[in-house]
Amino acid sequence: xxxxxxxxxxxxxxxxxxxxxxxxxxxxxxxxxxxxxxxxxxxxxxxxxxxxxxxxxxxxxxxxxxxxxxxxxx
Length: 74
Fold this sequence. Notes:
This protein is mostly helical and 74 residues long. It is 84% helix and 0% strand. It has one domain (7-69). Helix 1 packs antiparallel against helix 2.
């Protein structure tokens, strides 16, 4: 996906796609396009969540290391 959007916008668009898919009047020719877009958005969101988790883990590890270093200095 060349146009990366933010997590919040991706989730909003996923909600819109879900609303479309739940309607009875969805054009069958558009169905595959919307499902493909939903797949792209899900992958983007999963990637953002994984990166955020890695960042949080790194920060916690850094804080724990800094705390241990301070404890060792006492």
